[in-house]
Amino acid sequence: MMSRMEIGKRRKKAVRVFLGFLGVMGVCTGVSRGIYAYQMPQVETGRAAGKSISHEVSVSGVVEAARERDVVVAEGVRVQEICVKAGEKVEKGKVLMRVDVADLEELTQDVGEKIKLEEEKIAAAVESKRAAGQTAQKARQRAERELQNAREVQDQAVSDARSAYERAKEKWEEYPARGDFLEEKVKKDVEYQVYKRQAERNGATQEDRDTFDIYKEKLVSSVEAEWEEGKKALREDLEQKRAALSTAKADRKSAVLQAKRAVGEAGDTEPVDESAQLEGKNAIEQLRKQREGFQKLLDSKGKVVSETDGYVTECCVKAGDRTADSAAILLADGSRGWNFRAVLTEEQTQLLSTGDTVTLTFQNGKVKEEDCVISAIRPTEDGTYEAVATASGKDHFLGETGSLERTDKSRQFSCCVPLSALYSDNNKDYVLLMREVDTILGTEWSVVKKEVTVLDQNESDAALEDGSLQEEDEIVVFASKAVAPGDKVRLVESGEDTDDEE
Questions:
Q1: pLDDT tens, 83-103?
Q2: Which residues contact 197 (CB under 8 A, 6 or more apart)?
Q3: What angle do CA 248, 252, 256 make, to 5 degrees?
């Protein structure tokens, strides 16, 4: 049997082994929890607060003249030398360019010859017009004479036909009645009178009376036939004279109408085309202006000088070119003020509008101009936008750089969170709220999703709809790694490094 001493020694050894085991287990548990906690996303939290949302725009730009002066040289002149360059400051009287004088003299001579040629063309056109006018006048006078002759001849023909008709009408109207004609004829017939006296005398025989009756009957029949024949002849003659008068009138109308048409055609002779004259006069006017421009250059010995102080913004021609009808050189003098032109992004155009006032800053912030008005916002060819503001100062120079700034504050919002606390999924915004949960390892932090409605936001903050969050709600404003709803997280302890070490 073991002695009590040996038993006690074994018990003490067992206790030491057990305690060692518990220690090892404790160390392993601590290490495991440390590793577990270390792998969790580290988060910083905050709460919603009331504030206003500020929108700021700050972009760089350059000064440019509000108006450029065109230096225009007579068209077609050969450029001999450009004496300035873009961006150069020039004073009044500075030589900007020289033109080829010999070439200029040839051009002036050519223009003079062109003017002379156009003048000769106009003179020829005027003479042609005069000759055409005289020919037309003679033709009209001849046609008018023929019209007068036609009227006289036809009037006489109508008059003769009317007279003949009137005479025929008088004869018709004066022709005696049948009884009168018969009575007159009987009176003049000697045999009738003889037979009548024989038949009416005393002692006349029946033979005498029969002879008279037979003769009378023949005489009456003959006279009546004569009366009918005479009346018929007068009727036919009257109808002929009436037809002749109608024909004469129709002939007169036709002849006069034809003569009048001839007069009209003589007056409507083909007009002389005066468009060529007008074009010639316009051409001469333009040529004379061109010659005046050439002469001005000849008087200055081919020198083109600046008429004002300013800056050269662009040289549109180079030595050897011929001038066009547009500006050869552009000058900016600032006499109409200065503009400040800045490039904007599409998002920045939502924060600025024409008519807004901005602050322009120059010389690294040493010079500020308040309340400068934006005169234009327009797209550019490269897909950006540019804003043009009127610079109020006068002591600027072309190409001077500066910045355009504007800050707008919205109304006061009661529920604002840092923009870093805002998440989005399927076009819906949400924040992550901190919640304590019980696990087998004890109490831990988890995040839950809370959908919100954003009213306004800027580069750092977002304003949420009133009542979106409670005052005590803790929201995630920073996470060391991606966090999704339901994830376990741990709070960043004061002074703890939040860098993710993987």
A1: 888 878 888 888 888 988 888
A2: none
A3: 175
